Each structure stands twice: as structure tokens, then as C-alpha cells.
Amino acid sequence: MDDDEYYRLLDKGIEQIPEDVKTTERWKIPIVEITYEGKTTIIKNWKKLVEQIRKDEKHLFKHICKELGAAGDVQHSSGRAVLKSIIKKPSLNKQIANYCKEYVICSTCGKPDTMIVKDGRNHVLQCQACGTRRIIKL
Q: Which sequence spans correspond to the domains of the chain?
């Protein structure tokens, strides 16, 4: 086999790799699925969002409500969250992304393998992948 044939076969093989396998990113910031009922916004995939973010559900919901200036509650039986205001999807996604950047993604290595621990009076975001620790406000 000559070099030209090798590279032709290599290109053909690369073309056949599915797109989802080509990506090296193993975690993405989740996107909300919402519906509106009257003057309320319902996050249909709330339970899935919390599972993907892997942080305290109450803290996440409180952060979103505070940043958007909306009241609401979580309906555990249906796995959804209800905001008592009309909130547009881009605004919700932006707040979830901001939350993830502040409380989920490590600022050093960029991985989502973090946990919030109490260290004296402070809360610390500790990365399980690289060991970085930084003080955060809850």
C-alpha cells in the first residue's frame, strides 16, 4: 500500500465517524425545555437539569429565582419547576450557564467534577479532577 492510498482510506474512515463521537467534550451546560401556562413559566426538564448539574436543587432554584426576580416552586412529583412570571428561554439558559460557570465548572481545568464543601466559615468549590479550591459565596 502506498502513501496516497493510505491517506485516502484514512480520510474515508474519518468521514464515517459519527459526529457525537468526534467531540471531546464529555459534559455540556444543560438547556431548558419550557412551556407557558398563563403567566407562569414551567421548566419541564427540571429534574434532568438538576441531575446533570449535580448540585443542590434548592441552591440552584434559589439562584435562578433571585437572578430573574421571579418567585416559584419545584414540583417534585412531576419533576418540573414553576416560575410565577413569564421568563424567556434565553434568559433562563443564560442564568443556568452563569450558575454552571460559578458553581459547577472548575476555573482551572474546566471540568465539571466539583463539589461544594464547608471550610470553617467559608464555602469552597473543590475540583475532584485537579484539586483546585476556591472560595465561593452561597
A: 26-104, 106-138
pLDDT tens, position by position, 78-111: 999 999 999 999 999 999 999 999 999 999 999 9
Grid cell digits, residue 52: 446533570
**CB 116, CB 123: distance < 8 Å:** yes
Architecture of domain 26-104: 2-Layer Sandwich (3.30)
This prediction's pTM: 0.79
Helix (H) or strand (E) holding 43: strand 40-43
Q: Residue 123, SS3?
A: strand
Cell 413559566, located at residue: 41
* Cβ count within 10 A of residue 87: 22
Of the chain, the end-to-end C-alpha distance in Å amounts to 62
C-beta of residue 64 within 8 angstroms of C-beta of residue 76: no
Q: Which amino acid is at 59?
A: H
- Please give the Cα distance from 126 to 41 (Å, whole number): 33
